[in-house]
From TrEMBL:
GO annotation, cellular component aspect: cytosol
Organism superkingdom: Bacteria
Protein name: HAD family phosphatase
Key word Coiled coil present: yes
Organismal lineage: Bacteria, Bacillati, Bacillota, Bacilli, Bacillales
Keyword check for Magnesium: no
Source species: Metabacillus litoralis
Keywords: Coiled coil
GO molecular function terms attached to this record: magnesium ion binding; phosphatase activity
Coiled-coil region: 157-184
Amino acid sequence: MDGTILTHQNQVTVKTKEVIDQLRSKGILVFIATGRSFDEIEALVPEGFQVDGFISSNGMAAHVDGVAVMEHSLPLDLVEKVIEKARKHKVYYELFPNKGSRFTLKEDRHFLENEIRDPRTETVGINEWMSRKEAIKSEIEWKDVIEGDKFSKFYCFSRSKEHINTWKKELEELKKEIDFTMSISSEHNVEIMVANVNKATGIEYILNKHNLTANDIVGIGDSDNDIPMLKFVGHSVAMKNAPDHIKELVDDVTDFTCDEDGVSDYLEKHFL
């Protein structure tokens, strides 16, 4: 979604909705594959927005008609160790349950708020910065203790590239104890999911449900967490606003950016 069907103001345009509606009326299946959790999506799309399903949290879950048809969950001991290490290194984190609001422990609030202090670091994307501001303001639940036992992912952020890169090294060390997958969608974040899970594995699950193969689908993306998907699909497309190393991997590039309805323009030209 981010950098692809979402503008940098974190909204899907009505034009994109209309093109998706036309594709689906022709019998073409449309799925969203996103790093965002399923519960985040409704606030980002126009009224009446419909697709055939969602692969969310970088492949950790799949939903069809609002119902989870596949879910993975982080081991509880991994959750506890990540929070312990994040506190030690003062790393901004959000923990996403499989169902319900993301949360952070109350005792860590001070260093989360410090990471999003104004002014914005120049290299932090405006959409990611706005999302963190909104999360602190109203979306994070601040809890005294870890609640629940099913979690889809951690999202970690730093205003400093050096800080987040140091954190990634800490996570690499932790992987020697407990295996997991790391995914990156910007220079300032890293997400933690179950080992060997990504957007491509989520897409493969959906394909099997529809008796389709990777050659039957087109994937459009813009960032590092899209790489498994772009390598997997039969026809891969990068957004015009994607970095060069993503564009080098794909079969095609959109003519317009995410702020210029690049996805709807591409789909309209090639499928309508």
